[in-house]
Design goal:
This protein is α+β, with helices and mostly antiparallel strands. The chain is built from 2 helices and 5 strands. The termini are far apart.
């Protein structure tokens, strides 16, 4: 993954900051809550203008970030399917 190239989907996306940190962005409260409880995760920003938005970062490798996104999506898929937002 190139620096600042993003991956993921509208539920949870991530990108390589280029300094060993991976940025994460979600518009789903349940996904944000799961990320918030990770010990190395840091909340960077909150958006409120056009709805719910949370931006986080954690020092991770790209493969570990990819696995984290997959795990978070699988764990929160029921809430997402219900239209929770």
């Amino acid at each position: 993954m190139k620096i600042f190239e993003s991956a993921g989907d509208e539920i949870l996306s991530y990108w390589n900051n280029g300094d060993g940190y991976i940025g994460f962005q979600t518009t789903y409260p349940s996904v944000a809550e799961a990320l918030r409880h990770r010990s190395g995760m840091k909340l960077l920003g909150i958006g409120v203008t056009k709805g719910y938005l949370r931006v986080f970062e954690e020092k991770l490798s790209v493969p570990k970030a990819k696995a984290l996104v997959k795990k978070a999506l699988l764990k929160n898929v029921k809430d997402v399917q219900k239209g929770e937002k």
